[in-house]
Amino acid sequence: MKNKFFLKKDILIILILVILSAVIYFITASYYSDKKIYAEILHDKKVIKKVDLSLQTKFSLPDIPNITLEVKNNSIAFIHSDCPDKICVNTGFISHAGSSAACLPNKTVVRIVSSSPDDADAVS
């Protein structure tokens, strides 16, 4: 008899924990889905373009036609550059607020920023 009592109690505790975890997951998922993430493209330390990362596109910049950028899956990457080392291209796709990729020979930086003012950069 004692084994069945503890078994029912254990199942009840596990069920409560699963439900609580699901509620916390949905609350945090809805909080983070409201934040809009976009990329700023800088040339010579000046922002020349802001790109919404929810759109899928491939483009080059009028001021710097020798660089091609691609946006897909809420991330952005240099996919072509005429620089000798191709470090910017090898960086790959970036998607988290605070991340950046740079093409130093072309003086171009792509950085990810959030539209939410409470997303401060942790490295200050």
User: What is the H-and-E element order?
Assistant: HEEEEEHEE
Main sheet makeup: 4 strands, antiparallel
Evaluate the radius of gyration. Answer: 22 Å
Q: What is the CATH topology classification name of the largest domain?
A: mini-chromosome maintenance (MCM) complex, domain 2
Number of helices: 2
Number of beta-strand segments: 7
Describe this structure in words.
By secondary structure, the chain is of the alpha+beta class. The chain folds into two domains: 34 residues; 78 residues, mini-chromosome maintenance (MCM) complex, domain 2 (Sandwich). The protein has two helices and seven strands, in the order αβββββαββ. The strands form two sheets. A four-stranded antiparallel beta sheet has the order 2-1-7-6. It has a three-stranded antiparallel beta sheet with strand order 3-4-5. The longest helix has 32 residues. The chain is elongated, with a radius of gyration of 22 Å.
